Each structure stands twice: as C-alpha cells, then as structure tokens.
From TrEMBL:
Subcellular location: Cytoplasm
Gene responsible for this protein: rsmI
Principal cellular location given in the protein's record: cytoplasm
Taxonomy, superkingdom: Bacteria
Transmembrane segment boundaries: none
Lineage: Bacteria, Pseudomonadati, Pseudomonadota, Alphaproteobacteria, Rhodobacterales
Gene Ontology cellular-component annotations: cytoplasm
Domain RsmI HTH: 253-298
PANTHER family reported for this sequence: RIBOSOMAL RNA SMALL SUBUNIT METHYLTRANSFERASE I (PTHR46111)
E.C. no: 2.1.1.198
Keyword presence, Protease: no
The protein's name: Ribosomal RNA small subunit methyltransferase I
Residue ranges constituting the Tetrapyrrole methylase domain according to the UniProt record: 28-229
Record's function text: Catalyzes the 2'-O-methylation of the ribose of cytidine 1402 (C1402) in 16S rRNA.
C-alpha cells in the first residue's frame, strides 16, 4: 500500500490511500486499533484493513469512523458486527468465510482484540479449525496505563472489569489482593469510587494509579494511595475511559497463625496442593513448607470430624 500526506487543517497532516494493498492471505487477523488518538495505528494495520475480504468489529460504527479518517474505502466489502450479544450467531458465518479462503480482519471497540472483548472465542474456534490466526500488535489501554503508572512492570496481572454488585466485587478483590504483582483493572468511570471504597476496607494504603482518557486531549494520571484517591474522586465518579492500577501488596508477616488463617480460608474450597501453592506465593515461602502445614491442618480437620461423629 502507498500513502500520501494531505493537509488537514493548520499544520496537521493525514494519510490517504493511493493504491490498493496486496491481499494479506487467508486467515483471521486481529487488528489493534487506537484507544484515543486516531493516528496511533500501525501501517500494517491499515494495510490489512484496506485489503481484507471481510471486516468484523465489536462496534462497526467505530471501525467505519476509523476507516473514514484514514481514507480506507469499503469497496462493497462486508462489515460484520461481532459483540457479546451476537457472537454465537455471527461466529459460524465468519468461520465459513475463513473456510472459503477469505481474509477476515477483526477489531475490538478500541485497543488490542481479545483483551476484555468477545474476540477470544472467535480466535479459539478459528485456531481449532486449523485456520491461520495472526495478531497485528498496537495500542493497548492496559499496557499504556502500566507504562505511565510508575508502578513495577516486571510482573503484572490484568483482571478485567470488576463485578457490578458490591458483594461480588468484594470477593473478586479478595481473589487478586494478595498476588505479588501490579494489578490492572478496567472500570466504569461511574464506579471507580465504589471500587476504591471496597479496597480501602482492607488496604487503604495500597499504592494506586488512575489513568483517565489515555492518549486523548484530557488525559490524566492520578497517583496516591487508595484512600488518597478515594478522597479526590467526586461522588458521581469520573468521566471518560478509565484504567485503575494497584501496586503490590505490603509484605504479610509469615508467622504460623497467619499461615493457618490463610490456609483455612482456602482448604474448604481447593485441593491441599493448590491451596498451599497460593499461600506460599502470597507469603513468599517455599511451597514444600506450606504444603506440610496444609497437610497437617487437613488431618486435624478430619480428626475433629471423626470425634464429632
């Protein structure tokens, strides 16, 4: 594909297509698209969007707008909506197109496909059926937020969107709260305050970063503890797209009562080995030592049940 730069306002320049791209070849192409600034797209992504036989998107309006910005015509090609509410109905049609040897470009609402969007089922089924699946790397809200957060990036955990219900959200927080990694969360701007309130019930001093409107005109990055940022957020919440990051938890004392308490909370719902592994990771202890204690606790529990019987 060739591009020419055309004037677009005072000093701004935009890319427009002058020739058609060569076909990318049969297969499913997962195209990362901008999370804000429209120019944050790769030339390879534009090539594939210009030449693919079928275009699929979580939000076809967003993709159509992106095509218009970059001067990419549809030329009669199909533009297929593929989202949570119709994925099961649309997936067979997309797989059928792949079986006919066509190239399909899939774009999520914004950012990298399969990160908190329905595309993973499509990619899984396409791969299972033996079709080529290719990723076109590019913008990612999670990684952009991690980059500017100032939090450790050597180990991080993306946990997606929290549950809306308060009780489920508290259980969800407990599932990752002890993980020794920077935690990345996508949250509705209206519920950020509730998320911080729930975390402050147990870890008010957790290092926290809120990234709002990344790559857009009103981009903002807020640093502080969970309690400090909670105090800064208005009751009605924030505006715009939000990513919340939590730093690593404070070290927990590895005394026997603490270990027994942590294991006791897990042994009723997990196998001994898995419970021991999770607690060992949380406390930074050898798994063998924690496993021995877990086995001892399991035996104590079984002995107590026999006496009661």
């Amino acid at each position: 594909m060739e591009y020419s730069a055309n004037a677009a306002g005072t000093g701004a320049r935009s890319l427009s297509l002058t020739v058609s791209s060569a076909s990318p070849g049969p297969g499913l192409y997962l195209v990362a698209t901008p999370i804000g600034a429209a120019r944050d797209i790769t030339l390879r992504a534009l090539d594939v969007l210009n030449a693919a036989d079928v275009l699929a998107a979580e939000d076809t309006r967003n993709l159509r707008h992106l095509l218009d910005i970059h001067g990419i015509p549809l030329r009669g090609r199909r533009l297929v909506a593929y989202h949570d509410h119709n994925a099961d109905r649309q997936r067979p049609a997309i797989l059928a197109a792949l079986s006919e040897g066509k190239s399909v470009a899939y774009a999520s609402d914004a950012g990298t496909p399969l990160v908190a969007d329905p595309g993973y089922r499509l990619a899984r089924d396409a791969a299972d059926a033996g079709f080529v699946v290719r990723a076109l790397p590019g913008p990612s809200a999670a990684l952009a937020a991690l980059s500017v957060s100032g939090l450790p990036s050597d180990r991080f955990l993306f946990v997606g969107f929290p549950p809306a219900a308060a009780g489920a959200r508290r259980k969800w927080i407990e599932s990752w709260k002890g993980v020794d990694a920077t935690v990345i969360v996508f949250e509705s701007p209206r519920r950020v305050k509730q998320l911080l309130e729930n975390l402050c019930e147990s870890e008010a001093n957790r290092p926290t970063v809120i990234c709002r409107e990344l790559t857009k005109k009103f981009e903002e990055v807020m640093h502080g503890t969970a309690a400090e940022l909670l105090a800064r957020i208005p009751d009605e919440g924030l505006r715009g797209e939000v990513v919340v990051l939590f730093g690593r938890p404070e070290p927990v004392a590895a005394d026997e009562p603490s270990l027994r308490s942590a294991l006791g909370a897990l042994l009723d719902k997990l196998p001994v080995k898995q419970a021991a592994a999770e607690v060992a990771t949380r406390f930074g202890l050898p798994r063998r030592e924690v496993y021995a204690l877990a086995v001892e606790m399991r035996k104590e529990g079984e002995s107590g049940n026999e006496e009661e019987g």
